[in-house]
Amino acid sequence: MKIRWKPVVTGVVLVGLAGGVGYAVEQKLTAPARTAGVPGGPPGMPAPPGMAPGGGRSPVVAVQAGTVAREDVPIWFDGIGTVQAFNSVTVRARVDGELQRLDLREGQMVKAGDVLAVIDSRPLQAQLAQAQAKKAQDEAQLANTRRDLERNMNLKEFASKQTVDTQRALVAQWEAQIRADEAAIEAVRVQLNYTTVTAPISGRIGLRNIDNGNVVRASDQNGIVTITQIQPIAVVFTLPEKQLPAILDAQARGEVPVQALDREGRAQLGAGALQVIDNLIDSGTGTIRLKATLPNEPQRLWPGQFVNVRLLSTVRRGATTVPATVVQRGPQGTFAYIVKDDQTVEQRPIKVGHIEENRAIVESGLTPGERVVVDGQYRLQPGSRVRIVDPAAAQPMAGAPSAAAPAGAPPAMAGQSGGEAPVAREERHRERGPRDPNNPDAPRRRPPSADGSPDGAGPARSPREPS
């Protein structure tokens, strides 16, 4: 007997489709009764986390809160500047000659008067001997002229007055010549002293420009070496001209502290005081140049270095402060969310005077002791109910396993679970769907999809008809 398979397969397919449609309809009709908190459920059944009794999302918003404080706040002016040597000298030769000795080491610290180099002094010593011989010769002539004058004076009336006057003039002439010889000797001695090159200031030696054995000249522009004084050291920086009145007031009260920071503005390289305010404002940039002096101990500042500069203009005593993240901006200006006693928030306009180091000085609108929302404002509206979240609990330490992470989970997994915000966890909980209240250990089921298939699955597919 031959069986006709095509009608049989078609019947099986039709029965499967009918069963799938019936199961989908049953799920649609019974899902409200099984899902807690959704309309159609039995009375008294509790709503799942993150769902309101009416089926909507919970109006409670998880936020971080802080307290309005009263404290002393320093007001700093920030600028950019360049480090300059307090003094800088290019050591040059003042006489011509061969460089016989170089008593310096590049990069060493020297004191004023230390010997740096020695130039050949033999030509100048010969000039000194020649000048001294000329002086001795002129002294002999002066002695002879004085004796002639004495003889003429002893002749009295036998010597004419003209002869006596001429002899006196010769004596004065040779005396002047002696003084000229002494000056010539002193000039040669000064030149001879220049053959020993000494440090004019205390500081640090740079790279030398010449080596032993070379002939140096007084007309050379490069010099032998450069000495820079870096203890103390100077910083020249600029600030906007609108800050000049406050700087002048601070200078009138006393010493104005100045700090030099690195390029990133994080590490402090030195601290000192304002020394000079320039006598004119740059009209092109609208800035004023200032100069500060810093001890530079240890030597962390270097001439030519770029630094960020902070100048302390004043200290606000007893200012009302909040974290800078509290300040929000809207069409009507700045405002903040205030947490009231009933755990609802109020949007209040505030006036911010200055923001310094993540602290905002509030001129009006807040009172010390009030609680304000620090983080999570983007989900708030006036009157929203909030739940205060501990920042330490929301963001555990890196590498520490979270309570929400499974036991034995790797650090990466634990960090992901622990670092997730409470609101995000609730929303993901709602996406997974509620548990069956009759069987808590059963896996969560997704709500039926739009096409009526259970657990979000697609419609049943008919088996492939054999050919």
How would you describe the overall organization of this protein?
The strands form three sheets. Strands 1, 14, 15, 16, 19 and 20 form a six-stranded mixed beta sheet that branches. Strands 2-9-12-11-10-13 form a six-stranded antiparallel β-barrel. The longest helix has 34 residues, at 122-155. The chain has seven helices and 20 strands. The chain folds into four domains: 1-47 and 439-467, no CATH class; 73-113 and 202-318, Elongation Factor Tu (Ef-tu), domain 3 (Beta Barrel); 121-194, Helix Hairpins, CATH 1.10.287; 394-424, no CATH class. The chain has 467 residues and is of the alpha+beta class. 28% of the residues lie in helices and 32% in strands. It has helices at 5-34, 122-155, 161-193, 244-253, 391-394, 411-418, 422-432; strands at residues 61-67, 69-91, 97-102, 109-110, 115-119, 196-198, 203-205, 215-216, 225-240, 257-261, 268-282, 287-294, 306-323, 328-330, 333-339, 345-349, 351-356, 359-364, 371-375, 386-388. Strand 10 (257-261) and strand 11 form a beta hairpin. Helix 2 (122-155) packs antiparallel against helix 3 (161-193).
CATH class of the largest domain equals Mainly Beta
Gyration radius from CA atoms, angstroms: 48 Å
Strand count, sense and barrel status of the largest sheet are:
6 strands, mixed
CATH architecture of the largest domain: Beta Barrel
Q: How many strands?
A: 20
Number of helices: 7
What is the H level of CATH, i.e. the homologous superfamily of the largest domain?
Answer: Efflux pump adaptor protein, beta barrel domain
